[in-house]
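Here's what a typical entry looks like (ABC transporter ATP-binding protein):
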Amino acid sequence: MTPVVQLDAVSREFAGTAAVRELDLIVRRGEFTALLGPSGCGKTTTLRMIAGFLEPTAGRILLEGEDATRLPPERRNIGMVFQSYALFPHMTVEKNVAFGLKMRGIADSELRTRTGEALELVGLSHLAGRKPKQLSGGQQQRIALARAIAVRPSVLLLDEPLSNLDARLRIQMRQELARIQKETGLTAILVTHDQEEALELADSMVILDQGTVAQQGAPREVFRAPANRFVAEFLGYENFVELPDGRTVTIRPEHVEVLTPESTDSTPSDGTTVDAVLTAVRFRGTDCVVTAVSQGRTVLATSSDFELRSGRQVRVHLPAAHTIDLPRTKQELPTS
Ligand SMILES: Nc1ncnc2c1ncn2[C@@H]1O[C@H](COP(=O)(O)OP(=O)(O)OP(=O)(O)O)[C@@H](O)[C@H]1O
């Protein structure tokens, strides 16, 4: 099946500095792809190139299999929703939603049907006659979404669409987006720096690091097996431990076992066990989080042993089944 969006080695420079470098990306029909990464990694630049607002300095962009690298935005069948809702303040909700259809020369009766459908999809048909300023932030974002969907774009580009909403509304809108995408079979690319949003919504996530792909895959895969330290840190992994055999691994604190003579006197046979001293114990109610230091290496662990105190000598066990090997990134490799 021809991908809806395909980027072949796309690069974009600004005054000699690369914002996106040789990026390859494939988005298939009906797929929800999340582009994520820290500020400045090139997410918005990538989205703007797909929309046609920015030209790549190198590489090709294919839309529905056709070379669209130099195609102006209005000739790409793309819908966009931004962080700022960008609704026309003087137009009613209905006129806002109909705007893109009108621009495309859609006949009146068809225009009314599609506007009505789009408003129904976002659950706001009853507000059709209002002006944007008479709506809440969440409602305005729904209207922006309806406007983008009404034109039946081959791909919907979402640039941090939920980040202006408060936490509760953001979660509600996330579920709403998931529902709409499921109902309509929309192909969408979402730019976000919120990993939770990506984990919940995306079929595929692409983590960018300085304009290149650090890792791409299904959220579960990426979360379970981050490819390197950058991805692991971005996903919230906190333990980075160099093992005696030279490997660097990461492990979730809840998988690290803190052993004391009272808990066991045998050394587990799998994984790695090291002597350590506790330097901090934080009580959290149902468990505590301890910081253990072993030969300069720090490991965070959770434990339900409430007798543990700072200064205590323990052994720390990293079970093999839960340690994730992290190959070193280029920056971390010693230079020869
Ligand atoms: N018009 C521009 N002129 C010069 N540099 C730019 C321009 N647009 C983006 N950049 C630079 O390109 C890099 C990538 O920017 P981009 O906006 O794509 O990042 P981002 O991942 O979307 O970041 P954020 O999460 O902060 O929005 C940054 O270093 C940025 O400063």
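The pocket of adenosine-5'-triphosphate is lined by residues 14, 19, 37, 39-45, 193 (CB under 6 Å).

More examples are in the samples folder.
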